[in-house]
Design a protein that fits this description.
The structure is a single chain. The protein has about 350 residues and is mainly alpha-helical. The chain has a single domain, classed as NCX, central ion-binding region (A middle domain of Talin 1). Helix content is about 80%, strand content about 0%. The protein is built from 13 helices and two strands, in the order ααααβαααααααβαα. It has helices spanning about 1-30, 35-50, 50-65, 65-100, 115-135, 140-160, 185-215, 220-235, 235-245, 250-275, 280-305, 310-330, 335-345; strands spanning about 110, 310. A two-stranded antiparallel ribbon has the order 1-2. Helix 5 packs antiparallel against helix 11 (about 280-305).
């Protein structure tokens, strides 16, 4: 176990360093393409940092043994969007409050509000369709909804590129090309590829340690797929967004999260519908409902107030902690969880 905890910490450091490389590289990539911060955050950064949580459910479904693998894959698909809509927003809100105290930044989120509203609208539509597909009994209709989800993402991609705000400025020099501006394309591409590779490696290392620790505490596969694994795979989005709010680049920070929400609510459910029966368990439905509720409240706030405050982000986290309370009350963590947790605490 000491080795597991050591690797747990090492993996966090690896992801943190890789995310700094990636965020720096993707900003320059978008700048060279003359894309606005909205498109850089919602498209480039979102897709890039979504790779770990995209790979996990795909491997679970294609390689997993029987229904167990399918169940874990579907749980990870639902859990990833739920985690972004609740916990990721909460973490960014905490970051903004901390940086307002330590770096004097405002607690108001200076993001592209129109872009955020667009992202949340697309997310609510696609995530809602994914849930609808789970309760539809006819396979042909399920497949039609899967194709519709892919079409929605194509439309989202085009609208985001066309309406992406102003291009970013005041960029730090590219780490792989410190002299001479702008950096050459090959150095930008190299830094992005290296950082993505490190992110994926760090995420897999982190997930491995999380699984080991979960087994030590007898956490059920259901909770592992809905709560534990998504926390691990969403680390790149959280770290990138924290780095960007620290630099007062809120449009990039929020776009990284909301863009990933759209990507994961369109692409991953489509894959799940194509390759599984796509039936959701009760906890998966509850998690999805919590993610939808948090996003609806945030979207209403954006429409009414035309601005976003860190407190609103913290409020989204209540749905995450509410779901944890639901899991605990129903005893879904696993039969031996409480006993093993108590034994560990007494041992300490």
């Amino acid at each position: 176990m000491p080795t597991t905890y050591l690797l747990f910490g090492v993996s966090l450091v690896i992801i943190l360093v890789a995310c700094e490389l990636f965020s720096n590289g993707v900003e320059w990539f978008g700048h060279r393409l003359d894309l606005g911060e909205g498109a850089v955050g919602s498209i480039l950064a979102a897709i890039g940092t979504a790779l770990p949580e995209t790979i996990i459910p795909i491997l679970a479904i294609l390689v997993g043994a029987g229904d167990g693998g399918e169940g874990i894959g579907i749980g990870a698909i639902i859990g990833s969007s739920f985690m972004l809509a609740t916990l990721a927003m909460f973490v960014v809100g905490i970051g903004i409050i901390i940086f307002s105290l330590t770096r004097g930044r405002s607690r108001e989120v200076d993001a592209h509000i129109t872009g955020m509203s667009r992202d949340l609208t697309y997310f609510l539509t696609s995530y809602g369709l994914a849930l609808t597909a789970a309760i539809v009994p006819y396979r042909p209709i399920k497949l039609m909804l899967a194709v519709t989800l892919l079409g929605i993402y194509v439309k989202y991609f085009r609208s985001t590129i066309e309406d992406c705000g102003e291009a970013g400025c005041n960029l730090k020099p590219l780490y792989f090309h410190r002299e001479g501006l702008p950096p050459r394309w090959r150095f930008i591409a190299l830094q992005l590829l290296v950082s993505l590779g490190i992110i994926i490696y760090g995420a897999h290392l982190f997930i491995g340690q999380v699984v080991t620790i979960s087994e030590q505490f007898a956490i059920s596969a259901l909770v592992l797929s809905l709560l534990v694994t998504p926390i691990a795979t969403e680390l790149p989005e959280k770290f990138n967004s924290l780095m960007w709010v620290r630099k007062n680049k809120d449009t990039l920070a929020m776009g990284n999260i909301t863009g990933a929400m759209v990507f994961q609510s369109c692409i991953l459910p489509s894959f799940g519908i194509f390759f599984t029966p796509w039936h959701l368990t009760e906890p998966a439905v509850v998690a999805a409902a919590c993610g939808l509720a948090a996003s609806v409240i945030m979207l209403i706030g954006l429409k009414v107030r035309k601005r976003l405050h860190a407190v609103q982000l913290l409020f989204s986290g209540l749905f995450y902690f509410g779901f944890i309370a639901y899991v605990i009350l129903l005893g879904r963590f696993g039969e031996g969880f409480v006993v093993k947790l108590g034994a560990r605490l007494l041992h300490l």
